[in-house]
Amino acid sequence: MHPVPGGDKRPMTKLKLPDVVRACLFDLDGVLTRTAVVHAAAWKETFDAFLRRRDGDGFRPFDSAHDYDEYVDGLPRADGVRSFLASRGIELPEGAEDDPPEKDTVHGLGNRKNALVLEKIREQGVAVYPGSVRFVEAVRAAGLRTAVVSSSANCRDVLIAAGIEHLFEVRIDGVVAAERELPGKPHPDTFLEAARELRVGAGEAAVFEDALAGMEAGRAGGFGHVVGVDRVGQAEGLRKHGADIVVGDLAELLEGDAA
């Protein structure tokens, strides 16, 4: 347990975390912000348009639940394209990173998806999970270090739009990963980099993820605590892929919290 220090008369908020934890490493989409549904919708629009061009009106659509969770959630954009296409036995040229969105290459499809995500965020804004914000604030009040770890190249823009950028000391996102040549989830490298920047060992850090790939990264990195956040009814899958504990919302890790 980690009591919040302070001399006021309010009841102390305790964190339901192992005492060994000195830092908390948070995924963005689906853990802190409600953008996972935006990403799923953008992937569906991108892949369905491609499959319709390829296979005609009888194409098998992208499943926003199963296909998203199994093949693209938590992965760097190009890896998500490759992973889903491989599940359908489809190969495309890699193309170049600056391929236009209408080009049928791995990077072209990825850029189309990204353009759709940005469009949807501009139109709809970014909503946070209030329980997650309360938890991160309590983590900081308890003196623990914080980082956000995301495969998204738009991570900083999303944090700013959501009004929560100030809650994190370190940001390791798709831009930073590319600059430092860090492989994305399910590899643990981005989480390990965040722990390194916070000057804590992996065994002293907790990982908070909603994606199966994120669970695998937490397990592979030897982190002290791996928390699965189940927003879509995949608790068993999160456990199988490496979660030490699964919660429906991070507020469940605040003792005495009232939603």
TrEMBL record:
Names of required cofactors: Mg(2+)
MF terms (GO), sorted A to Z: beta-phosphoglucomutase activity; hydrolase activity; metal ion binding
Domain of life: Bacteria
InterPro entries membership: B-phosphoglucomutase_hydrolase, Beta-PGM-like, HAD-like_sf, HAD-SF_hydro_IA, HAD_sf, PGP-like_dom2
Coiled-coil regions, chain positions: none
Catalytic activity: beta-D-glucose 1-phosphate = beta-D-glucose 6-phosphate
Pfam families to which the protein is assigned, alphabetical: Hydrolase
Family, similarity comment: Belongs to the HAD-like hydrolase superfamily. CbbY/CbbZ/Gph/YieH family.
UniProt-recorded name of the protein: Beta-phosphoglucomutase
Sorted UniProt keywords: Carbohydrate metabolism, Hydrolase, Isomerase, Magnesium, Metal-binding, Phosphoprotein
EC numbers on record: 5.4.2.6
Species per Swiss-Prot/TrEMBL record: Wenjunlia tyrosinilytica
